[in-house]
Design brief:
The structure is a homodimer of 275-residue chains. With 275 residues, chain A is α+β, with helices and mostly antiparallel strands. Chain A is built from seven helices and 16 strands. In chain A, strands 8, 9, 10, 11, 12, 13, 14, 15 and 16 form a nine-stranded mixed sheet that branches.
């Protein structure tokens, strides 16, 4: 189902302004959420992140309308996911942000995605550009990730791992990166060019209760090769262990703390949605 | 005027697939051309670049349809400019390129842009990411340039100059970079993260006939501060001298070869269009 102009629609064809800067310049944001039992998991965290990201782009954000879109789409799908897209709206020519632009919000619900496989990942020569604020936002420009993923799939891999321009690990194509180094759970700093993922935040917040020491810090290539386990997190698929990185086998799924993290996440979903 | 579905329209509101990857992921290209006397300047060069860029993105490209859009819009405006946008088209979820995607082509014509001022330019901390093929394409993702330009305008500047992640000069927000070092005319290599601008190519091709030695090579920050003159080129505005860079005055407009280059460009437009 699709949501636009304040209502649900069966069709994805909508009247769109061809001067919309989301369509012409990638000037906008999106957000993806998990839906269980007709409820959006981490609903408020997603709305808060969208609001903060819109502020970074100096875009007005109608939180009430976004919440209405989320709730309406969640009810329509029951179990699955939602993608909201928020563009700058129509505007004149050029890059300067038009003062009169009125943001365009639309959304789509979809069935549960296939279960995340154990990931076979390759690194890419395309770097995540941590010098840009865009690298820390779920902003529309995903062409780097599209090209890098295409290259990875041509090599038989499932996903791609980006390093940033300083040679530090950043993230997967659409997921945050975590690694275990002995008993330390490490994820890159946001400043490394990383989205403030909601599952990332949940793991950082709950790590201590699982007896884990979690650290946000940079990880370089040499250190990456010494990781005991690696996994990816995102809103839709929660946690996926990595079983191969650049041809090196990794027993991530067997790491003693992976199952505890997966149980914690599934319990969080159930607690928030299945009540 | 707007062009979509094979015909001219007065309205910019068109039926668009909300799953169009140009709208949802910045997965597409655009192109901007100058129109004089109802004709598109460097028409074939622009069509060729679009075709080559589409090939880089593994997108089908209908050159005949693009030519028809260009010619129809050129006739509609007489004097001014055209922007064509080519997106991947609608597709399912995820970043993987859908095999069935059918590209969406649309265009707009517009009156002549205001005369390029003598530019007051500042550099930005956002780097041009030359590790990505996207940096060499007129691809939809322009959010880095939007944010950098916004920052520059807040400082009272007209435009922004990007360095790449290696510390070499790349380009302005929507224009190629040229500098004179004594009698040498230098522009960055495409590998520095630079669009293959059609005016850039024309200047490189004609330099010798104007008695200039032109070089494509990297320029670092230290060298930038020793430039005798700096100018910007793009399809719509041809050549604009830079009169200030990071607060340093530059007499670029007075450089002995700038006027010769401007005359060459204006003559090329007249020769191609006003016949």
């Amino acid at each position: 189902m699709f949501w636009f102009d304040g209502a649900l629609h069966e069709t994805s064809i909508a009247p769109v302004d061809l001067t919309d800067r989301g369509l012409t310049l990638g000037d906008g944001l999106f957000d993806t959420t998990l839906v269980r039992s007709g409820r959006v998991f981490q609903r408020q965290a997603h709305l808060d992140r969208l609001a903060a990201s819109a502020a970074t782009l100096a875009m007005p954000f109608d939180a009430k309308m976004a919440a209405q879109a989320l709730d309406t789409l969640a009810e329509s799908i029951g179990n699955g996911g939602i993608r909201l897209t928020l563009t700058r709206g129509g505007g004149g020519r050029g890059l300067a942000i038009p003062e009169t632009a009125k943001p365009f919000l639309f959304g789509a619900s979809f069935p549960p995605p296939p279960v995340f496989p154990r990931l076979n990942v390759v690194t890419t020569t395309i770097r995540r550009n941590e010098t840009s604020p865009v690298a820390r936002l779920k902003a529309l420009p995903y062409l780097d990730a599209i090209l890098a993923l295409r290259e990875a799939k041509a090599q038989g891999a499932d996903d791609v791992l980006f390093e940033n321009t300083s040679g530090h690990v950043a993230c997967f194509s659409v997921a945050n990166f975590f690694a275990f180094f002995s008993d330390r759970l490490v994820t890159p700093r946001l400043e490394d060019g990383v989205l403030a993922g909601t599952i990332r935040a949940l793991i950082l917040a709950r790590a201590k209760s699982l007896g884990l020491v979690a650290e946000e810090r940079s990880v370089n290539r040499a250190e990456l090769s010494r990781a005991d386990a690696i996994f990816a997190t995102n809103s839709l698929r929660l946690l996926a262990p990595c079983q191969m990185l650049d041809g090196r086998s990794l027993d991530s799924a067997q790491h003693k703390s992976i199952e505890a993290l997966q149980v914690m996440l599934e319990t969080a979903v159930a607690d928030e949605c299945d009540t």
